[in-house]
Automatic annotation (TrEMBL):
Organism the protein comes from: Oryzias melastigma (Marine medaka)
Protein keywords: Disulfide bond, Signal
Lineage, opening ranks: Eukaryota, Metazoa, Chordata, Craniata, Vertebrata
Chain ranges of the Ig-like domain: 22-197, 214-288
Signal peptide (UniProt feature, chain positions): 1-19
Any Pfam family: Ig_2
InterPro entries from the UniProt entry: Ig-like_dom, Ig-like_dom_sf, Ig-like_fold, Ig_Fc_receptor, Ig_sub
GO cellular component, one term: external side of plasma membrane
GO biological process: cell surface receptor signaling pathway; immune response
Superkingdom of origin: Eukaryota
GO MF entry, a single one: transmembrane signaling receptor activity
Name of the protein in question: High affinity immunoglobulin gamma Fc receptor I-like
Length: 301
């Protein structure tokens, strides 16, 4: 009888363990660009680092990927030495560790895109888009160190700024949404009684509003909300830098305010035909934005 019990446990145990232990953790690896630039010249090197947000400090190994391709490199640090153009791509990492049920992995990190440029000039844009009213700084990197005498900045193929001398940085103050576009730079220098001129590939530059114009969503689902209720949601992009001042949300029906200001972007109201809208206000920044009105139900004539 003892032998029978032992065999039963031996057969059942792996099935029980596999059903209760997950193969993938609930947290995600994080990849960080240690080098200064994500766009580099061919022949340059680059450094990435992977971290595993595990409070239990488990012993993780690190796997690296370019796109869906598993790379042979392992470990927390990844170096791209003497880079070739074909080595460009989206790099990510993933943690893995052994357990009694096999290999357990973290979720794969969000990718970092690396560009390898075979040309002579690279236009470096800010890693985070500037806000309306900021100063936009763009720098033209040049392979080698020739005696530059002129640098020109273009937006969408049209000259924006021209400067003489060795300065390779451009500063556009008080930018607006119209300053967004595809930027490039041209650098010229003299050597051996000849003038050389090179131009970078285009780099997209986005400009963000601190507070965008909101839109209102009316969500009326009787199977979700009981007691004849519907939900008003005010969608908006708020891009103020930390510490960001608080945002106030106001909801309106037929141009009449519904209740007091809200700190969240939604409001439950009775299901009722009408024209609904929302207003978003940041008092400390003196910013106010209105949504376009949205009709719900049959409007009374």
């Amino acid at each position: 009888m003892d032998t029978c019990v032992f065999l039963l446990v031996l057969v059942s145990l792996p099935h029980i363990m596999m059903s209760i232990v997950p193969k993938v953790t609930s947290f995600r690896a994080v990849v960080e660009l240690v080098s200064e630039n994500s766009r580099i010249f061919s022949g340059e090197s680059l450094h990435l680092r992977c971290s595993i947000p595990d409070v239990h400090r488990s012993n993780w190994s690190v796997e690296w990927f370019r796109g869906s391709e598993r790379l042979p490199e392992n470990g927390e640090n990844f170096h791209l030495w003497n880079a070739h153009i074909k080595e460009a791509g989206k790099f990510s990492c993933q943690g893995a560790r052994k357990s009694v049920v096999g290999i357990i992995r973290t979720m794969q990190s969000l990718p970092v895109e690396i560009d390898v440029d075979g040309g002579w000039a690279i236009l470096k844009a800010p890693s985070h888009p500037p806000l309306v009213g900021d100063t936009l700084t763009l720098s033209c990197r040049l392979r080698g160190n020739p005696p530059v005498h002129e640098t020109i900045l273009y937006r969408d193929g049209i000259e924006v700024m021209r400067q003489s001398g060795q300065n390779l940085s451009f500063y556009l103050s008080n930018v607006t949404l119209e300053d967004a576009g595809m930027y490039s730079c041209r650098v010229s220098w003299d050597a051996r009684r000849r003038t050389y001129s090179v131009i970078s590939v285009n780099t997209m530059v986005n400009i963000l509003e601190v507070l965008s114009h909101p839109s209102i969503e009316i969500y009326a689902n009787v199977t979700v909300f009981k007691n004849n209720k519907m939900k008003l949601i005010c969608h908006v992009q708020y891009n103020a830098r930390a510490p960001a001042p608080p945002v106030h949300f106001y909801f309106y029906k037929n141009n009449r305010q519904l209740g007091l200001a809200k700190s969240k972007n939604s409001e439950m109201v009775a299901v009722d035909p009408g024209q609904y809208s929302c207003r978003v206000k940041v008092p400390q920044l003196n910013l106010v934005r209105w949504s376009q009105p949205s009709n719900f139900g049959e409007m009374p004539e």
